[in-house]
Amino acid sequence: MVLGPAGCGKTTLVANFGRWVEQTQGFRVGYVNLDPGAEEVPYDPDFDIREFIRVSEVMKEYRLGPNGAFIKCSDLMVEHLDKIHKGISEIHAEYILVDTPGQMELFVFRESGPRIISRLKDLGFPVAVILFDPSLVSKPSDFIALRLVTTVIQLRLDIDSIPVINKFDMPDAKRILKLLESPELIKSELASEQGVVADLALSLAETMDRYSQATRIAKVSAIHGTGFEELYDILHEVYCTCGDLT
C-alpha cells in the first residue's frame, strides 16, 4: 500500500517499482488503483476503483466541490468494500502494489482506509510504504514529524509501515540525507534550537526511540529507479520475526 501526501510521487513509484520487481525479481506484479480522482495512471490497473467511483462524477451527482467530492468518494469506497475485496482477490500475482488516494488524510483517518486494509489481510500481508518529498523535511523537527506521522499511520491502519524519502537525488535533499544517516545529529541540532517546538520535537524523538519499531528510512528516486533494491530488501525484512528493520 503506497501512501503519502499529494505530489510525493506515489503513482510514479507504483508504476516504476512494479516494473523493476517484474524485470529484476521475475515476479508477476498486480496493480491496484484506489484513487478515484486520478485522471490517468502510468500502469495498467488489474483493479481500478474508477470503475465504480470517480470524483468528477460524484461532483456532478451530489453537487459538491472537489474537497467535498473526495470526502464523499472515501465514504462510497466503504459501500463498495465487497467489490474492492473481490476485485483484488482475483488478481493472480505474487506482488500487488496499491496506489492510494492523493489525499492521504482521507484514506488514513476516515473509515475507508482501515476498513479496506482490514479486509485485505485475509488475502496476504499488507505493508504501508509511506512516501515523503524532501521539501517536507527541511529541518530536524520536520524529520521528527515524519517519524511521528509514520507511527500514527501504523497505529491507525494496524499494519507495518515503512517511511520512504522520494526524490532524494534532488540538490536540496543533501542535508536531509545527512540527518537520515545520523540520528544523533538530529538530536544535537534540536538541543541547540530554542523554543517550544524544538523542545517538543526533542522529547518526541526520545520517546519514539524507546517505543517505536526499529526501522531505517529508504531513499529512492521513483523516476530514475534509484534505491529500489534497498526498498525491496526492507519490504522483505518486514517478515523477519525479530522485527528489527535497522
Describe this structure in words.
By secondary structure, this protein is α/β, with parallel strands linked by helices. It has one domain (2-181, 215-237): P-loop containing nucleotide triphosphate hydrolases (Rossmann fold), CATH 3.40.50.300. Helices cover 50% and strands 11% of the residues. The protein is built from 11 helices and 7 strands. It has helices spanning 10-25, 55-62, 66-79, 81-89, 104-109, 112-120, 140-157, 174-181, 183-192, 196-211, 228-237; strands at residues 2-3, 29-33, 47-48, 95-99, 127-132, 160-165, 218-219. The protein has a 4-stranded parallel sheet, sandwiched between helices. A 3-stranded parallel sheet has the order 3-2-4, sandwiched between helices. Helix 3 runs parallel beside helix 6. The longest helix is centred in the middle third of the chain and has 18 residues, at 140-157. It is globular and about 55 Å long. The mean pLDDT is 87.
Measured distance between first and last alpha carbons: 21 Å
- Strand order, main sheet: write it out: 1-5-6-7
Q: Total number of helical segments?
A: 11
Beta-strand content: 5-15%
Total of domains: 1
Low-confidence stretches: none
CATH fold name, please? Rossmann fold
